[in-house]
Backbone:
């Protein structure tokens, strides 16, 4: 079985992350319940006429994929695999509301066409004229990890050499409005420094995209080795530690082999207990970081966790802003990312220095 | 790479039957399920025909014994019915005995409830329970819950009309790689105003019975359905002394990279998908005994797919037919529906007719099989082609 490497990364998020030369050097402060992705200069990557027809998620996905491809220094890939929990919300909302508002009349196909979940993966393929394998996973908080797992299997078996993997999520105004009603969104604005200790229900909703070129050969730009990915549809709070220990054992690792753990805390008082239990339990002596205070919560934001872990492994630096505890590992060789959303769809991603 | 993955169970609900036996009976008796739409209030009612499961949502809730406060979308309910039949058919009594996952394909997801309560959510608390069932993964989570699959790999694929074929493909790869011992794969999609009006704006809905591969085809009939297969590793098959219905022998996915919705004229994507599937199966085109075509009866699909089939099979064309005239185009579920039909074809050595065909297309001389035909079948190739240029082929075989 071949080893799998993350050879390039790209992130468009509520932070200024689209330039790979930076690593959270400059933090954008927020004090809100919903935060939006910061736009790169789309014109640099997409002709303006084409960009005008694209909803934000498509634009972000297409551009992030280009940034990742550029950094990897390759022109094409053997597969394009994306994850999106909510899909193309803006066009979906446009089409549903048009159906209702106009009683099924005077409709045009554009928003329907672009509402399809695999629009981003399809557009990337169209742009690259890439006729290869093209999949889109749409399973809530493990959409990205499903894509990553699929890519990893193909690379290990040498069915592919380079695969573009990404997660993308865009905010739709109506969807945000209705999620407020069921308390999935925080009732009051919170600042970055308050999120973790907000003690309120819900999360700060957000949007963004993260793309990676994963390959079965290490290139100069390599960030990390992707060692293992596992997802769980359900997992009781009491069983997460056990699941992690089993997962590590399967990868011939022990708890103290983990130099740093990336948690998906979002400050939701009802569900952060999953992380707190680990933080105070099996990982109490391990360096811990988090990121959702910076980039909010969305179905594929765990890909930002992998982005963060990749950056940390490559640069061997941990920005102050992401630190949860005061433990500092002298050398960061092995990183574990753990995420869940509202107590469901748990994921573990294990990365190693390359 | 050539060893197939065992299929040990299957389940289905579609416009032509509520289980595998009813579907088979309709197929061999050439009984199509295309009617006017009854369960959705739409102004398009008199302009379109659909392949509809005639149970109302209340009837489905009663069948599944769901509590009144449930928030199941119709997609989830159809999915649960088919998945439960597949589990029963596979003789599984203890789902936890082996590492079992679920891969489902859907494109509509919970859109049926979203479009019903879109504005009501803002004022009517009663309806708000459905907000969480909108996203595509929700139907799969509910199938997992109903089957008792916990702490496992459960995921959803949405690649438009090839979703379920891709779910079968991923499932087969997960078994081959040893990640899972057993996996329930398939797809579910219900009818919705969203898809009815979406396809209407694309002007590819027929106002009468759809006629795949016919020169005068007028477009597709939308359908709703769900189907699931149980795939098991050789070790499980052996340990449980399982009866194997057929094997997933080969699979391939490729992208047309031509247009967001239309297929290329020469069917590049479909050609590549069939080539890949044949390679994985280690079969020559001449070794395929029957093609269950995607054949949606749109002008674009049948021409593009027809050309792709010609490119692969040339002079050695086996019998081919599309079963869309029976069921309508069930979108993300289509690949699973037709997987069940492909297995039934293998089990019974029978080729299902391409109904409603009258006039050959002028672009080529391909004539689908129009009568029910008995033939010794060892391999069936099934195509599923979708928006975003997504093209998939799965090959089923009698022998591993």
Residues:
């Amino acid at each position: 079985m071949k080893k799998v490497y993350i050879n390039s990364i790209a992130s468009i998020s509520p932070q200024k992350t689209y330039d790979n030369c930076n690593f959270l050097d400059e933090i954008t402060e927020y004090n809100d319940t919903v935060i939006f992705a910061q736009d790169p200069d789309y014109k640099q990557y997409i002709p303006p006429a084409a960009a005008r027809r694209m909803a934000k998620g498509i634009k972000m996905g297409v551009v992030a994929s280009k940034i990742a491809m550029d950094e990897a220094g390759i022109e094409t890939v053997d597969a394009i695999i994306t994850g999106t929990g909510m899909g193309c919300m803006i066009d979906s909302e446009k089409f549903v509301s048009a159906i209702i508002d106009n009683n099924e009349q005077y409709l045009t196909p554009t928003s329907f066409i672009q509402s399809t979940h695999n629009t981003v993966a399809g557009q990337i393929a169209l742009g690259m004229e890439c006729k290869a394998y093209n999949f889109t996973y749409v399973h809530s908080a493990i959409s990205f990890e499903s894509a990553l797992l699929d890519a990893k299997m193909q690379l290990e078996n040498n069915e592919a050499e380079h695969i573009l993997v990404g997660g993308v999520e865009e905010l739709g105004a109506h969807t945000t409005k209705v999620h407020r009603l069921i308390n999935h969104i925080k009732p009051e604005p919170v600042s970055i420094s308050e999120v973790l200790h907000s003690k309120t229900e819900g999360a700060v909703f957000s949007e963004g995209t993260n793309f990676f070129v994963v390959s079965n050969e290490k290139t100069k730009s390599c960030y990390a080795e992707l060692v293992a990915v596992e997802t769980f549809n359900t997992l009781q709070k009491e069983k997460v530690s056990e699941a992690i220990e089993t997962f590590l054992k399967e990868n011939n690792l022990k708890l103290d082999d983990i130099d740093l753990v990336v948690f998906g805390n979002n400050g939701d008082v009802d569900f952060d207990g999953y992380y707190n239990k680990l933080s105070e339990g099996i990982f109490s002596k391990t360096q811990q970081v988090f990121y959702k205070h910076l980039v909010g919560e969305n179905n594929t934001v765990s890909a930002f966790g992998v982005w963060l872990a990749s950056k940390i492994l490559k640069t061997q630096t941990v920005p102050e802003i992401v630190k949860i505890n005061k433990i500092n590992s002298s050398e960061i060789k092995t990183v574990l990312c753990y995420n869940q959303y509202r107590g469901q769809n748990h994921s573990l991603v294990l990365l190693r220095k390359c | 790479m050539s060893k197939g993955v065992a299929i040990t169970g299957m389940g289905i609900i579609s416009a032509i039957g509520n289980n595998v036996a009813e579907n088979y009976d309709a197929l061999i008796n050439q009984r199509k399920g295309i009617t006017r739409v009854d369960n959705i209030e739409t102004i398009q009612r008199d302009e379109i025909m659909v392949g509809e499961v005639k149970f109302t949502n209340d009837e489905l809730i009663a069948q599944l014994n769901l509590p009144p406060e449930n928030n199941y979308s119709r997609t989830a309910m159809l999915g649960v019915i088919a998945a439960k039949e597949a589990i029963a058919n596979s003789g599984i009594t203890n789902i936890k005995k082996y590492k079992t996952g679920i891969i489902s394909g859907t494109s509509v997801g919970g859109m049926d409830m979203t479009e019903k309560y879109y504005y009501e959510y803002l004022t009517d608390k009663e309806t708000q329970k459905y907000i969480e069932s909108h996203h595509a993964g929700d139907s799969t989570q509910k199938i997992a819950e109903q089957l008792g699959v916990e702490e496992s790999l459960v995921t959803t694929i949405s690649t438009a009309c090839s979703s379920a074929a891709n779910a079968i493909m991923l499932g087969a790869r997960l078994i081959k790689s040893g990640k899972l011992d057993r996996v329930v794969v398939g797809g579910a999609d219900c009818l919705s105003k969203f898809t009815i009006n979406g396809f209407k704006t694309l002007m590819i809905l027929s106002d009468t019975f759809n006629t795949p591969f016919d020169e005068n085809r007028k477009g597709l009939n939308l359908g709703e359905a769900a189907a699931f297969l149980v795939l098991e590793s050789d070790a499980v098959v052996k340990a449980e002394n399982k009866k194997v219905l057929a094997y997933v022998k080969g699979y391939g996915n490729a992208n047309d990279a031509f247009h967001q919705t239309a297929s290329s004229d020469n069917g590049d994507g479909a050609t590549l998908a069939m080539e890949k599937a044949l390679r994985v199966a280690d079969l020559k085109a001449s070794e395929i005994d029957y093609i269950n075509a995607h054949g949606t009866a749109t002008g674009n699909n049948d021409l593009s797919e027809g050309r792709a089939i010609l490119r692969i099979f040339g002079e050695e064309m086996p019998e081919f037919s599309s079963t869309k005239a029976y069921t309508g185009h069930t979108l993300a579920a289509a690949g699973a529906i037709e997987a069940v039909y492909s297995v039934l074809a293998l089990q019974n050595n029978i080729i299902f007719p391409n109904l409603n065909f009258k006039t050959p297309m002028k672009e080529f001389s391909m004539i689908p099989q129009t009568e029910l035909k008995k033939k010794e079948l060892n391999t069936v190739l099934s195509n599923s082609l979708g928006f975003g240029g997504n093209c998939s082929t799965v090959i089923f075989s009698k022998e591993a």
Q: What stands out?
A: The two ends of chain A are 17 Å apart (CA to CA).
